[in-house]
Structure formats: structure tokens, C-alpha cells
């Protein structure tokens, strides 16, 4: 007879965009909405490639037809103006994308690029033309790092490198389009027509972006409602209260340990690679004309270069996945250097075409692989900044290449001087990338074991071995880590987010969970900041009539051996986090675990940073969208068609005083609303849940604010008034999964929502996670952890026993939650019968509670009278 929210990722409520992933990590699967967003990002990258070549296609016309008095050297300077803008845009847009939001940054950059590129067609002189190219470059420079950062969050981790590399095929495809279009349009319509093509970006691609691009990293301040902001003022910074250290975002993080060396090498390698790629892109048509070819033939050589780059995107995507992005990038850079050297000897035309194809494969392929390596190497909260840093500083090479090429020609050194300069840059890139590979390998082999309690940052470069590895820093992970540390295990907990914190508002902690906290000596801490409600009251949302109530003190608390507590999610999370710190659990942030396997009787967790964590046992507590659950089941989360909105606002003297000491649940047709106090009566928590008609129609984006308002239109004024407390910037689709019997794969076992995600109607999500931890503690105590020491070989039996005890219990809770929720939301005759049944129940009737809250039964942790070692430490 209770209510709380399940562990599900929040979704932005803006319509028309695919549901964003959490900022701490990539999507668990590649949805249709994500595919549409990636396609839009690819189209924007196509314009980056088009702009790369477009100046090369019109350069001869600008020199000979405009009357601007351009020489080869000044033409090279103007060619560099766009790249200067790109450098500025890449550096700052990457940082903006990490703080302001990916979607806004991408669309803003696309609009800036389009407008100023179109204006280039109307430039009256060289100075204005150069200024417009610089401004267009600022917009264009921000697109690639922002788009890559977004794409990295939309695709599963295992496909991140491949998709990032393939997406960059848009650059040479755009360049090929520029060459093909230039062959036809320049003679017919003049050089101006090449810049008017940017109208397509403004009228087609930008609207597609508005429709399909999600916002995966928007700051709360940008979208919060008044209720959200009031709650934040009242509650403070949830994450910062957790007792952990947040790594600063931005360039300051990139330019200090542990990132400094690798960040500088990535930047230098990008400078060298872009020098070669942009130098060829800018000067190749002109170089081939100087070598004796006409404009049409010269542009076909540029087409060969870009077609090679397209092929390079596919080839390097495959090779990078198979051999790793850094080794493949080294080989690609070496191929480019060799191909350009061959051009110096003046080979036959057929060989020239082939060498240009190889140069395209090598130069562009190297840059694609660098982007893939950066996107995989840095954590989510630094990914856009890191990509902006690499591509922004790398644009120094793009700026320098046109000028150097022009100066070499103006000095009379000939066409071959350009090819040698670009070949030398590619060779330098290969050397620098070799240094990157050696540096990463050195860090992995020489890293010391992280010090307990210290927040090891982002790249997770510290390999470690431990007794127990817990994956996931939510309620289940912290509880599991604490329970096994209580048994004496050396426990390492890794969390993919950059800091520990809990998203959400209130939760209800029934006696079966309160007893577990009491076992660890933490109940008093929870009671200091929580509220013990007097009653749980159910009312009809349409009439306001009270249907039944449960008195939660007195006989109830005595019967079940612990109180009923409502508490802010962040407060309970902080209690568990501080207990883990006090107990000596090693806490590590910014570690994205991609897979786990059992090797030689130990669990081995492989991370996105390429570091392995080894442990006697691995606890998978990574939530509803667990990346580890596929080891034991092939299922997917199940949508209930219901969506929640919630809000936590300060209780003031104007707040109606009725029911502020109770948990109130209003039951309506296809909807319900819950209210209860938090923080010793300082806050009022409100949750509204309703069935979405648009989900029933099969729409991917469902449960908008319009549906929220419509769902409660027939409810009593008290419910209507409560809706004003909700934050409407985030919606929470309600998911669970079907129960499964097996949670064990080798030396890995699931717990919490990774094992048994459930709907909210019994208020048991966090409660069952705490039960899991206590039962796992009991199953390993005396078997793995004995008076004579640790017996790692006993883990197989211990986790199987844990699985056996808990699977049936949690399956019953999962199934009952579904049925209980259906009874809440009935209408018509079924609603009348439900109300009669509820009203027939007496306050002291416990028949519906004993199976859930009782102190005995299969899979229920036994009460422990003796104080724990943790309790002793906390009281010392």
C-alpha cells in the first residue's frame, strides 16, 4: 500500500527529440530516434567537408575574376581565415557543449555558419570576404566537436569508435560534393553560387536538427521550472553534499594530471594531421593546375582525394575497432606520408590518382581515428571540451597550411614543395601518435593502486585488484559495498558519473529497509533528516473521499521491528556514501565498465578507458539499463505506458497544513498523485503519475505536459493545486523488467534494479536493494569470510545462495507491483468495487503487509541484535 519511483532515467520533456541518455554515459542501445539524430549530425559534418574544399574550388576564380588584386600568398591568407574561425569555434563550442548543452550549441553553430557563408557570395572586396569566412568558420568549427560529443552519448559504448569514425565520412563526402558541384556550377553561375549552397543547411538541416536532436547535457538552470528552482534553493546542491570531490570541468582539467601529457600529444598530432589534410584540401586543385592540368582535371584530382577519404572512413572504422584507434591512426598517417612522397617523383596519371586516394585514406582516416580515440578516452563531462581542445588547437595546422602552401609557391619552390611539406606533417603525426600509445601503455603498467577514499578521476587509468568490485554508485551499489566491507572485504566501487549523487526527490523506506539500516547503525542518521509519517492515507482523486488508512506508528512499528520513514533520495544516498567512506570502501568515479568476464576464477571488468579491474567477485548494481544484465538475460526494459512528474518545494506558512504529517495517495482513472513531507517537514514532495495516450498511439515521445494537465482535469481541487508543485522540465517514464531466475554469470552477480527493476506502486525499489545487500552479507559471512580468513573459492556458492534466496522474493514484489498499480488506476465499475474493498479494510488489519514487511520468510534478511563493526566505527 505504498508508493515510490523506480530507478529509471529522466527524460527531457521537450517534444520531438529522442529521449536523452543520462549525462554520465552512452545509450544502452541504438534507437531509431538516436539514429535520426546521428544522421542529422552527419549531415552537418558534410557541410564541414564542403566548406573545406569550396575555397579551393573558387580560389582561381577569386584571383583572376574579382579584381580584388589577390596574389597566391594573399589568397592563402584569406583561405586561412575560415580556419582561424574554426579554431576559435572548436575550442569554445566544445566547452559550451559541455556546459550549455549539445543541442543548443550545434544548432547555434549551424545557423552562424549558414548565414555568414551565404553572405560570402555578396562580399564587395577581399577584406569583407575574409571577415565573413572567419565568422562562418567560428560556426563551422563548433559543429564537429559538439556533434561528436553528442553522438558519443547516443550510441552504445561498443559502437562509439566505429560510429564516430564513420560519421566523419561526411567531411570527404562534403568535399566530393564541392568538387563535383564546382565542375558544373562555377563555369555556369560563377564562384558566388558555391557559397549560396549553404542555404540548404539553413532551410533543411537546421529544421531537422530542431526536430531530431536531443539534449543530453543541459544544465538544470536552463530548463528548471519555478518549482524545480525553489526545491534546489531549499535542498542545496545534492551532489556536493555527498562528501566526494567533483573534478572541475573545462580546459583546466585537460591541462593537468592525469590528462596533461595525453592532451598535449593529441593536440599536436591533430595540428600535424590537419596541416596535411587542409593543406591538400585548399591547394590541390591549384597545384594540379600549376602542374599543367586544366581546371576540370584538377577538380577530379580533388575528387579522388575526397573519395579516398570516404573510403578511409570505412576502412579505419573497421580497423580501429579491430586493432584500436591509436595503432590504426599511426598506420594511416604513415600511409599518407608515403603516398605524398611518391607524388614528388612525378608518376603516371593513374598512379597519381591512386596516391591521392591513399593520401585521402591516410590523412582523413588519421583525423577520424584521433576523434574516436579522444571521444573514448575522456569521460562524459569532459568529452566535448576534449574534442574542442584537440580540434580547436589542431586548427592551427589548418590555419597554417594554406599560408605555408602559398608562401612556398610564391617563393618559387614549386608544386613538390607542397607535397613534401604535407608528407612531413603526416609523418610527424605518426610519431606523435606513437608517443600517445606509449604514454597510455606506460600509465597502465606503472599506475599505483589508488589510495582509499580518494576520488580517482575520469580516465580510470589506475588498474586495480580487489576482493570485491561493485559496479554502480546508486543505492544498491553503495549498500552492497557497505555490506561486504562490513564482512571484512576489500571493496572497490566504481561509478561512471563524474561525481556521486542521486537524482530524484523523496522515497518511502518501509520497515523491511529500516531494519537493514538499523543493522548497520545507520537508522538514527536517517531519522535525523527524514520524517516518520503518522499515517498512509488513500483517497479517491475524483471525489476526495478517504478510502482507507494505515497508522504507521505504535502497533505497526512494533510488529515489523522498525519505523516507516520518508526521506529525500539524496539524503539516504549521502548516508550510505558517508558510511562507505567511513568503512574504507574505495570509491572511484568516471569509470565506465563495458563488459565483465570470468578469467581463472576471478571477475574481470573491462572499462572504456582500456583498464581492467580484477576481483574475486563482481557485483553488478548498474541500474535499470544495466550493461551487465545481458550476461544473464536478453530482455529489454518494459514500459508501463505511465509517466511521472515530480517536484519538491519548501513548506511555507502559506502551504495548506492539512495532511502534512501523512503520506497521501490520491487514486484516479489512469492517474494518481502522492504527497508527503521531507526534511523534518521543511519540504513537500509531490509525484504525479499518469497513463500517456500518446504512448498508446505508438509515439516515441510521450507523456508531455499537455497530457499531464489533461490526465487530472476531473480531479478534486486539492489535486489540481498540488500539480503546481511539479517541475515540468523533466519527465520520468515508468519502466520495469520481467522477473528472471538467474542473476549469476561466472563470478558476476546482479543486485538492485540491475537484477529486479520494479514499478513504484509498492515503494520497494530502494527497499529491495537494501534487502539484497543484507542477504548477500549473510550469504558470504561464514563462507567466504570466516574466522580463519578469506576463502575466495566460496564465492561461487555464496552468490548462488544469494540468487536462490532473493530471486523468488523480488519476483513476487515485481509482479505484485504491476497488479497493485492496475488496481489504483481503474475506472467505472472496477473503481466502485475497488473503493468498496478499500473502505472495508480496518486500520489494524495487517494481512496485506505481513508478507512484504515481516521479519521472517524466504529471502528476507534476518534481524540482527548485535551491533555491527560499522556501527562501532561510526560511534567511536
How would you explain this protein's 3D organization?
- The chain is of the alpha+beta class and 876 residues long.
- The chain has 30 helices and 20 strands.
- The strands form four sheets. An eight-stranded mixed β-sheet has the order 1-16-12-15-14-13-5-6.
- Helix 2 runs antiparallel to helix 16 and helix 26 runs antiparallel to helix 27 (795-824).
- The longest helix has 34 residues, at 32-65.
- The relative contact order is 0.11.
- The model is unreliable at 2-9, 13-28, 217-249 and 443-463 (pLDDT under 50).
* Overall geometry: elongated
Query: Could you tell me the strand content as a percent range?
Result: 5-15%
Termini separation comes to 39 Å
The description of the largest β-sheet is:
8 strands, mixed
Average of the residue pLDDT scores = 81
Gyration radius from CA atoms, angstroms: 31 Å
Helix content: 55-70%
Structural class: alpha+beta
Biggest sheet strand order reads 1-16-12-15-14-13-5-6
Query: How many strands?
Result: 20
Low-pLDDT stretches are 2-9, 13-28, 217-249, 443-463
Number of helices: 30
Topology:
Blueprint: E1 11-12, H1 32-65, H2 72-99, H3 102-120, H4 126-154, H5 157-167, H6 170-189, H7 193-196, H8 199-212, H9 220-223, H10 226-235, H11 251-254, H12 260-290, H13 295-323, H14 325-344, H15 349-377, H16 380-410, H17 415-446, E2 464-471, H18 475-486, E3 491-494, E4 506-509, H19 511-519, H20 523-529, E5 535-540, E6 546-551, H21 555-560, E7 565-568, H22 569-583, E8 586-588, E9 593-599, E10 602-607, E11 612-620, E12 638-650, E13 662-668, E14 671-678, E15 683-691, H23 693-696, H24 705-711, H25 717-722, E16 727-736, E17 744-745, E18 748-750, H26 765-780, E19 785-786, E20 789-790, H27 795-824, H28 828-839, H29 850-853, H30 869-875
Parallel strand pairs: 2-3, 2-11, 3-8, 5-13, 11-18
Antiparallel strand pairs: 1-16, 4-7, 5-6, 9-10, 10-11, 12-15, 12-16, 13-14, 14-15, 17-18, 19-20
Helix pairs in contact: 1-4, 1-6, 1-8, 1-12, 2-3, 2-4, 2-16, 3-4, 3-8, 4-5, 4-16, 5-13, 5-15, 6-13, 12-13, 12-15, 12-16, 12-17, 13-14, 13-15, 14-15, 14-17, 15-16, 16-17, 18-22, 18-26, 19-26, 26-27
Amino acid at each position: 500500500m505504498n508508493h515510490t519511483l523506480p530507478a529509471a532515467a529522466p527524460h527531457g520533456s521537450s517534444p520531438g527529440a529522442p529521449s536523452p541518455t543520462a549525462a554520465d554515459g552512452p545509450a544502452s542501445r541504438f534507437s531509431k530516434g538516436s539514429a535520426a539524430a546521428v544522421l542529422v549530425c552527419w549531415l552537418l559534418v558534410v557541410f564541414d567537408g564542403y566548406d573545406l574544399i569550396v575555397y579551393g574550388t573558387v580560389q582561381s576564380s577569386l584571383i583572376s575574376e574579382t579584381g580584388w588584386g589577390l596574389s597566391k600568398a594573399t589568397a592563402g591568407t584569406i583561405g586561412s581565415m575560415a580556419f582561424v574561425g574554426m579554431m576559435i569555434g572548436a575550442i569554445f563550442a566544445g566547452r559550451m557543449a559541455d556546459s550549455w548543452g549539445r543541442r543548443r550549441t550545434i544548432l547555434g553553430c549551424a545557423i552562424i555558419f549558414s548565414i555568414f557563408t551565404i553572405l560570402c557570395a555578396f562580399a564587395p572586396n577581399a577584406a569583407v570576404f575574409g571577415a565573413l569566412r572567419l565568422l562562418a568558420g567560428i560556426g563551422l568549427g563548433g559543429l564537429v566537436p559538439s556533434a561528436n560529443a553528442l553522438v558519443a552519448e547516443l550510441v552504445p559504448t561498443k559502437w562509439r569508435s566505429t560510429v564516430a569514425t564513420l560519421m566523419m565520412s561526411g567531411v570527404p563526402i562534403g568535399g566530393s560534393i564541392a568538387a563535383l558541384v564546382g565542375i558544373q556550377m562555377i563555369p555556369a553561375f560563377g564562384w558566388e553560387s558555391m557559397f549560396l549552397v549553404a542555404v540548404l543547411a539553413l532551410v533543411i538541416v537546421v529544421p531537422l536538427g530542431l526536430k531530431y536532436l536531443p539534449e543530453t547535457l543541459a544544465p538544470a538552470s536552463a530548463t528548471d521550472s519555478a518549482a524545480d528552482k525553489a526545491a534546489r534553493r531549499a535542498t542545496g546542491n545534492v551532489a556536493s553534499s555527498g562528501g566526494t570531490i567533483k573534478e572541475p570541468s573545462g580546459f583546466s582539467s585537460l591541462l593537468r594530471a592525469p590528462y596533461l601529457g595525453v592532451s598535449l600529444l593529441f593536440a599536436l598530432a591533430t595540428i600535424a594531421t590537419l596541416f596535411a589534410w587542409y593543406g591538400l584540401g585548399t591547394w590541390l586543385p591549384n597545384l594540379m593546375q600549376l602542374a599543367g592540368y586544366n581546371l576540370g582535371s584538377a577538380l577530379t584530382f580533388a575528387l579522388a582525394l575526397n573519395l579516398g577519404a570516404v573510403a578511409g572512413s570505412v576502412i579505419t572504422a573497421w580497423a580501429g575497432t579491430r586493432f584500436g584507434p591509436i595503432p590504426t591512426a599511426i598506420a594511416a598517417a604513415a600511409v599518407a606520408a608515403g603516398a605524398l612522397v611518391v607524388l614528388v617523383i612525378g608518376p603516371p596519371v593513374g598512379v597519381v590518382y591512386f596516391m591521392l586516394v591513399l593520401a585521402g585514406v591516410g590523412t582523413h582516416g588519421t583525423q577520424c581515428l584521433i576523434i574516436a580515440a579522444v571521444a573514448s578516452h575522456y569521460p562524459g563531462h569532459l568529452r566535448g571540451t576534449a574534442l574542442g581542445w584537440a580540434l580547436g588547437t589542431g586548427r592551427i595546422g589548418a590555419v597554417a597550411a594554406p599560408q605555408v602552401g602559398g608562401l612556398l609557391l610564391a617563393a618559387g619552390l614549386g608544386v613538390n614543395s607542397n607535397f613534401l611539406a604535407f608528407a612531413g606533417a603526416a609523418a610527424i603525426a605518426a610519431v606523435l601518435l606513437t608517443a600517445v600509445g606509449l604514454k597510455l601503455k606506460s600509465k597502465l603498467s606503472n599506475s599505483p593502486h589508488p589510495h582509499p577514499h580518494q576520488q580517482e578521476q575520469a580516465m580510470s587509468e589506475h588498474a586495480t585488484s580487489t576482493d570485491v568490485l561493485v559496479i554502480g554508485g546508486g543505492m544498491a551499489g553503495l549498500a552492497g559495498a557497505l555490506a561486504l566491507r562490513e564482512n571484512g572485504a576489500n571493496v572497490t566501487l566504481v561509478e561512471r558519473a563524474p561525481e556521486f549523487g542521486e537524482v530524484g526527490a523523496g522515497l518511502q523506506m518501509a520497515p523491511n529497509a529500516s531494519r537493514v539500516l538499523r543493522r548497520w547503525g545507520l537508522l538514527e542518521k536517517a531519522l535525523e533528516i527524514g520524517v516518520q509519517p503518522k499515517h498512509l492515507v488513500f483517497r479517491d482523486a475524483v471525489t476526495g473521499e478517504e478510502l482507507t488508512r494505515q497508522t504507521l506508528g505504535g502497533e505497526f512499528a512494533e510488529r515489523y521491528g522498525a519505523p516507516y520513514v520518508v526521506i529525500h533520495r539524496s539524503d539516504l544516498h549521502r548516508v550510505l556514501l558517508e558510511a562507505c567512506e567511513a568503512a574504507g570502501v574505495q570509491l572511484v568515479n568516471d569509470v565506465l565498465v563495458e563488459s565483465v568476464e570470468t578469467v581463472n576464477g576471478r571477475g574481470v571488468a573491462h572499462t572504456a578507458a582500456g583498464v581492467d579491474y580484477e576481483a574475486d567477485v563482481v557485483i553488478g548494481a548498474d541500474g535499470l539499463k544495466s550493461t551487465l544484465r545481458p550476461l544473464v538475460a536478453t530482455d529489454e526494459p518494459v514500459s508501463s505506458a505511465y509517466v511521472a512528474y515530480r517536484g519538491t518545494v519548501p513548506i511555507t506558512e502559506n502551504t495548506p497544513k492539512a495532511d502534512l504529517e501523512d503520506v497521501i495517495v490520491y487514486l484516479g482513472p489512469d492517474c494518481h498523485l502522492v504527497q508527503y513531507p521531507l526534511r523534518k517537514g521543511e519540504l513537500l514532495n509531490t509525484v504525479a503519475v499518469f497513463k500517456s495516450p500518446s504512448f498508446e498511439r505508438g509515439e516515441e515521445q510521450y507523456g508531455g505536459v499537455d497530457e499531464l494537465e489533461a490526465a487530472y482535469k476531473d480531479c478534486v481541487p486539492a489535486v489540481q493545486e498540488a500539480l503546481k508543485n511539479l517541475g515540468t522540465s523533466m519527465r520520468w517514464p515508468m519502466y520495469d523488467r520481467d522477473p528472471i531466475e538467474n542473476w549469476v554469470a561466472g563470478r558476476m552477480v546482479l543486485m538492485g534494479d540491475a537484477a529486479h527493476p520494479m514499478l513504484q506502486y509498492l515503494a520497494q525499489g530502494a527497499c529491495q536493494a537494501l534487502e539484497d545487500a543484507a542477504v548477500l552479507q549473510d550469504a558470504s559471512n561464514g563462507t567466504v569470510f570466516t574466522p580463519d580468513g578469506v576463502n575466495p573459492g566460496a564465492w561461487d556458492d555464496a552468490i548462488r545462495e544469494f540468487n536462490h534466496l532473493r530471486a523468488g522474493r523480488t519476483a513476487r514484489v515485481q509482479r505484485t507491483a504491476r497488479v497493485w498499480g492496475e488496481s489504483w488506476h481503474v475506472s467505472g465499475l472496477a473503481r466502485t468495487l475497488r473503493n468498496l474493498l478499500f473502505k472495508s479494510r480496518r486500520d489494524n488489519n495487517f494481512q496485506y503487509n505481513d508478507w512484504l514487511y515481516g521479519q521472517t520468510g524466504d529471502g528476507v534478511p534476518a534481524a540482527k541484535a548485535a551491533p555491527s563493526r560499522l556501527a562501532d566505527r561510526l560511534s567511536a
